[in-house]
């Protein structure tokens, strides 16, 4: 599975040219998208996630045309936006069970095993009965991963995940992400160089809507 982005352009109605002829080929594993605030990272992530339309260009995920086969993409996409809402008065295991039903996992035995495995994987088993409103930032992020994994995604998009996490939470979150990267395309959008350096085999540097660099983190550091 490969994500291919070709000649992508987006100008917002306020005249901001947020994506300028973006071309990227992203393979399975962890891909870092690095750039300062305002670079266009979220615009690109939202476009790949079928949440907004580009003005021109194309995106394919394997043999799926992302811009026209939106339902196909959504079925296989795990999207973790920068800040996602949680229902504060529901506990993790209850919400995951409900979400699993919505994803079509209606068989009780299957659902139980899927939900329990995700809670263990994300290290939330001990807090499964705690209301999400009482979760720390890192726990919410890990719950976001559990939720994203319900879809059995081929593509996971993570937008600025480590902002506001303490170092221990950050490490736990990043380790979890790197495990996922093995047979999935994981795109990590961030302005933190270390996140990319530690985890990603491949990366791009973005600024003012343009790809300035494509390659490995080692090559990027040598180029500076
Ligand atoms: P990043 O995620 O790298 O911070 P964004 O994609 O959010 O970058 O923003 C890129 C540029 O596009 C910024 O100048 C931002 O203000 C602008 N922008 C983003 N979303 C919109 C929008 N919906 N309408 C108008 N301008 C936008
Ligand atoms: P980011 O995480 O990329 O910084 P923001 O928090 O700036 O995104 O954007 C939040 C929402 O506001 C998004 O839906 C985005 O499309 C919109 N937005 C961002 N920048 C602008 C802008 N300059 N003008 C209008 N809408 C914007």
Protein described:
The radius of gyration is 18 Å and the shape is globular. The protein has 8 helices and 10 strands. The two termini are 31 Å apart. With 224 residues, the protein is α/β, with parallel strands linked by helices. One adenosine-5'-diphosphate binds next to loops. This is ABC transporter ATP-binding protein. Keywords: ATP-binding, Nucleotide-binding, Transport.
Supply database-style keywords:
binds adenosine-5'-diphosphate; alpha/beta; four-stranded antiparallel β-sheet; 224 residues; 27% strand; globular; single chain
Describe the secondary-structure layout.
Layout: E1 3-11, E2 17-26, E3 29-34, H1 41-48, E4 56-61, E5 64-65, H2 70-75, E6 77-80, H3 92-102, H4 108-121, H5 137-149, E7 155-159, H6 167-180, E8 185-190, H7 193-199, E9 202-207, E10 210-215, H8 217-223
Parallel strand pairs: 3-8, 3-9, 6-7, 7-8
Antiparallel strand pairs: 1-2, 1-4, 4-5, 9-10
Helix pairs in contact: 3-4, 4-5, 5-6
The structure holds adenosine-5'-diphosphate (ADP) (2 copies).
One adenosine-5'-diphosphate binds at residues 12, 14, 16, 18, 35, 37-43.
């Amino acid at each position: 599975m490969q994500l291919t982005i070709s000649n992508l352009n987006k100008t917002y109605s306020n005249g901001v040219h947020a994506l300028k002829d973006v071309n990227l080929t992203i393979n399975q594993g962890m891909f870092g998208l690095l750039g300062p605030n305002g670079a266009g990272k979220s615009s690109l992530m939202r476009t790949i996630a079928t949440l907004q339309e580009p003005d021109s260009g194309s995106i394919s995920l394997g043999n799926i045309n992302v811009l026209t086969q939106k339902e196909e993409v959504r079925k296989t996409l795990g999207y973790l936006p920068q800040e996602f809402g949680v229902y504060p008065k529901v506990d993790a295991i209850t919400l995951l069970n409900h979400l699993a039903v919505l994803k079509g996992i209606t068989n009780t035995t299957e659902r139980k095993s899927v939900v329990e495995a995700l809670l263990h994987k994300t290290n939330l088993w001990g807090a499964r009965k705690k209301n999400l409103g009482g979760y720390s930032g890192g726990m919410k992020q890990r719950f976001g991963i559990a939720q994203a994994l319900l879809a059995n995604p081929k593509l996971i998009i993570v937008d600025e995940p480590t902002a506001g996490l303490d170092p221990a939470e950050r490490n736990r979150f990043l380790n979890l992400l790197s495990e996922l990267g093995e047979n999935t395309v994981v795109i990590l959008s961030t302005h933190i160089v270390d996140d990319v350096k530690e985890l990603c085999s491949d990366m791009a540097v973005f600024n003012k809507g343009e790809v300035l660099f494509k390659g490995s983190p080692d090559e990027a550091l040598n180029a500076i």
